[in-house]
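Table 4 source record.
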Amino acid sequence: MFKNILGFVLIDAPHSALNNAGEDAGARTENTVAVKVIRKGRSVYPYVSAQAWRYWWRNTLAEKMGWNVSPIIRDAKIAFTSANPFEYQDDDVFGYMRALKKADGGTLTRLSPLKCSTLVSIFDSTPIDDFGVMSRHEGDPVPFEHQFYSTVLKGIFSLNLDSIGVYYDTARTGFKNLDENYVTKPEIKASIQKVGAAKINGMWKLPKGERVKRAKDTIGILPYLYCTTKSAIHLTDVTPKFIILAVIKGGNHIFMNITNNSYDKPLINVPALKQVLTDYKDTIISDIYIGRQQGFIDDIATELSEIKIDNKAIHISSPKNIVEKFVNVIEQHIE
């Protein structure tokens, strides 16, 4: 079974408009910008799309970690990246799809080793309609509206450690990452030589040091994520204020349902967290790392510190410190 890093995060969004849906056709003014929401009956839950979250992630990796981001190629109504995971770390970690002529390799696809959910509000939280005017000009003022909200967003992600830096040429969807004709192209061949990749047992593989670095960068960037959407008037820190990290054998995300959705209860359901850690202790192959920012959900601090799981060490610190501690053990889980 594949080894996956599992992550659970809470992001505090007290006055935010992190992902907009565009103009609201039913609004009072013609230029109204609405936020993205999910509706369940009468309840409304603001959310940030997985695509937006991954966009923050990729951009911060490029700026903070110096990743060489794959250029986007536009062809009529479609767009694709270079599909060169040797040269471009984001093609490796975020996946790709590119349709080439059969002589050049055919259709290449790579499932993203990094998988994530949308960031969804824990609570029912109807967005606020904010009305304003542009009046720094002669003549009548121009009215406009936009929406924002106050909530806490939750999200989950996983990173497949056995897939980073490993590329197949199997003729099935998601596994035809490369093709014999494709790897003989001069630019791909040069990238292979540059990074020191080799074909082993029918698959291309990067050196372990490079695979470890890409995995460590991907997780290590979490305390530095940022979003510029509406930041001029709704500046929001989108780094996790609560995070759980662990390595598991398998693909199911055991931390998916550990929150309470009532304002009357703590955000994290600590008994539910303890239950999944106990139930899956034989599947979890690392220590358990929990980060909580002081001043955020302080009401569960004591209860968290009292969790005990047989044969499992639980590390609790600030989100930034816990990510740094976890990153230091990633190499142990990459072969």
